[in-house]
Amino acid sequence: MEITKKIVILGQFGVGKTSITRRYLSDIFEKDYMPTLGVQIKKKVIELPSGNLLSMIIWDLEGFAKVARTRASYLLGSNGFIYVFDITRPFTFEHLDEEIAFIKEKYPQVVFKVVGNKKDEKDPNEIQAYLDKKNIKIDAFVSAKTGEGIQKLFTDLANTFGT
Amino acid sequence: MNTQNTFFSKKIQEIHAKPAGEITHSSNTLFKLDVNDNLYQLHPFFESLQNELENGIGIQSSLAFPCVQLEIHKKQFICDITIKMERGFLAILFFDYSSHYEHLHEAAQEKKSAMLSEQKHELRIKHLEEKKAYLDFMRARIDTKMIVEMEKMVTRIQEFKKTKVSPEQQILLQEIEESVGHFHLKAIQIREELDFDFNT
Predict the structure, then answer these.
(1) pLDDT tens digits, residue range A14-45?
(2) Which one, of A19, A47, A20, A14, lies nearest residue A113 by Cα?
(3) Sheet with strand B23-26: strands edge to edge
């Protein structure tokens, strides 16, 4: 049996959404920054522990300052969100608590992961105190550049879909 | 007028499909599709919206998806996509804006690169301000807690030396005074190094 799930990658511009997607799909990393316009849609089929196939359709969106400003049509039919922020740029996580609250309120049925990217450039412990103070729970700190944590991120997400 | 019609007609593709996915009509302007092709197998864009399009979930009358990067049968276009729910079928329009978006891409890259530089600059300024505040705090502590206190100690030792003390005690007091004087000098050097560190 094959099931299809739509995963949307969210977050501000330059946080590494496309790099994370590319690392997961093709295991490559490109240093040069090329902003995404609109949406790029890619697909990867993986086998679940049950033996069933999961078709993950990944919508890599253009960065928006706030999720509320993302076109509703882009988010239609989503099964999973990955919200990415850049641990080296406080601008990308200073309103993270509000973003998480917004997503949980508007899309309560969507599986949701929050990840801090670029852990190869900065020790995540340096921002942990800030996150703890604001009571923000992060699913993972990853690096699209080295690949650390990327496979696990998507595998964990896939496993939440079960079957 | 005819020229305009020709230009636009080459940029727009209209597709009709049953909600179950069977394509019933395609103008084939951009992508060559066959009648009876399955819409949901054309591209992951449609596959991921199958449930919504089949069942009309979350769709009022039409949906608009600007700037979707499509590759179908090895042909690539950047399109705005409109999907309209008609009675018994889906009307899909692809508007080819590839040239427009490619041009926009360059502008967006310049703009966002500039924004990244600006954020980096702001972050550096903030970091410098925090560093300055920390160094001012450290400098003040060195001044009040170390240098001033050691100066007081030297004054007291000198006063003590003027009292009736044995020659051995004089020697000991002299050594203590020299040690405190040495620490005092070191504290001043550390304070000056803080200034030097900040200025670099």
Answers:
(1) 999 999 999 999 998 988 778 888 999 999 99
(2) A20
(3) A140-141, A111-117, A80-86, A2-10, A53-61, A39-47, B62-72, B75-86, B89-96, B12-17, B23-26
CB pairs < 8 Å spanning A and B: 76
pTM beyond 0.90: the answer is no
Contact A110, A74 (CB under 8 A): no
Q: Check if the beta carbon of residue B139 is closer than 8 Å to that of residue B196.
A: no
Token duo for residue A46: 């993986």
In 3D, which of A84, A156, A83 has the Cα closest to residue A117? A84
- Distance from the A9 Cα atom to the nearest Cα atom in chain B, whole angstroms: 14
Is A13 in the B-facing interface, judged by CB distances under 8 Å? yes
Selecting from B58, B66, B123 the residue whose C-beta is nearest the C-beta of A38 gives B66
Vertex B183 angle, CA B178 and B189, to 5°: 125
Which residues, other chains included, contact A23 with Cβ-Cβ below 8 Å and sequence gap of 6+? A29, A144, A147, A150
Which pair of structure tokens corresponds to residue A35? 């902003």
Q: Are A87 and A116 in contact (CB under 8 A)?
A: yes
Measure A148 CA to nearest chain B CA, in Å.
Answer: 24
CATH entry 3.20.20.140 includes domain B2-97: no
User: Which domains are delineated in chain A?
Assistant: 2-160 (3.40.50.300)
pLDDT digits (tens, 9 = 90+) for B80-107: 999 999 988 999 999 999 998 888 888 8
Q: What is the CA radius of gyration of chain A?
A: 15
Do the interacting molecules here have an ipTM over 0.85?
Answer: yes
CB-based contact (8 Å) between A155 and chain B? Answer: no
Q: Which residue in A27, A26, A144 sits closest to A87, CA to CA? A: A144
DSSP B38: B
